[in-house]
Amino acid sequence: MTLPRLGTIATHETTRKLARRLEAGAARILSATVSRAAQRWFVSFTVEVQRAIPAEHARPGRVVGVDLGVKTLLTGVDNSGKIVTVEGPRALRSSLRKLRRASRGCSRKAAGSANRRKAAARLARIHARVANVRADALHQATTGLAASYETVIAEDLNVTGMISNRRLARAVADQGFGHARRMLGYKATWRGGRLVTADRWYPSSKTCSACGTVKAKLSLSDRIFVCEACGLVLDRDVNAATNLLKLAASGAESQNACRPRVRPGSAGHRGMKQEPGPAPAGQTGTVRAQARTAGHLSSHAY
Ligand SMILES: [Zn+2]
After folding, report:
1. Pair type for strands 74-78 and 7-8
2. How far does residue 124's CA lie from ligand 1's centre (Å)?
3. CA 235 – ligand 1 centroid, Å
4. Three-class secondary structure assignment of 243-266
5. Concatenated DSSP letters for 29-61?
């Protein structure tokens, strides 16, 4: 990679995919941003890419309702009755333990000392690792869903509202709801499918998927849904995903997530609600490149 002033720098990850597209005239770099995090240098490109979007999805008619969970990364129920569960990666949990330890270690060191600086650097490296593990797990899960289902229906969660709840904050941030929904949106579009979002106020967790009775209260610690009206006993996430699937089937779902919507009270969160659109003039994607301290740059194509 050749950057102004710095000259040519070797990348840690391969840039061959991007280079091939550039040579073929199928991509155009619009800008590059160099940043530094946890003692590594990154360069991310904004790239305009020509992408052939199939007119029809490879598996037409396949629908999955997806509940983005706290306990599991995601739970899906499809229209053939199959339950798809994606657990959070184990590496994430062990990294979180390391994170807690490093955080304590850092706060015990005297402010301004060399040891404090070292401990802070260690903490930053672990933070970066947690973010990478999480992003990787989400990419795998969402790629799989976009490939297997023409229609993915997910809840339009009020992520900002949930993060202000401190106990839930880490779990929600960990699983990256907003990130997952964005990925589902653009990956579905790329394959000729679509992401549909249920209205934020649709009570997918509180509704009984068998009889439709809506509970007045359901706490987050209730992992099993029990219906007083019909006696249904079901895993909370499976119940929610089933409701979303039914909503898609009934056609009562709200707009396609490709179109950003403005709802009362959502003015502050509009940025999070925007999914990459069907991109009339060709898709725009980002290729990220990563570099170890001054030298080996690397690229990561999403
Ligand atoms: Zn019921």
Report:
1. unpaired
2. 48
3. 13
4. HHHHHHHHCCCCCECCCCCCCCCC
5. EEEEEEEEETTEEEEEEEEEE-----SS-SSTT
Q: How many CA atoms lie within 13 A of 7 on its CB side?
A: 2
| H or E segment and range at residue 108 | helix 90-108
* 29 neighbors 22 (Cβ within 8 angstroms): yes
Give me the residue label for tokens 């339009």.
156
Say yes or no to pLDDT of 243 above 80. Answer: yes
Angle at 156 between CA 68 and CA 266, to 5 degrees: 140
Catalytic residues: 67, 155, 237
**Range from 5-19, 223-237, 247-261 carrying the lowest mean pLDDT:** 247-261
Cα of 225 to ligand 1 centre, how many Å? 10
Tell me the per-residue pLDDT of 150-172, one tens digit each, with 9 for 90 and over: 999 998 766 555 656 666 556 65
Question: Average pLDDT, stretch 179-192?
Answer: 91
Name the helix (H) or strand (E) containing 297: strand 297-301
Cα separation, 51 vs 60, in Å, equals: 20
Cα 271-277-278 angle, rounded to 5 deg = 175
CA-CA distance, 170 to 83, in Å (whole number)? 26
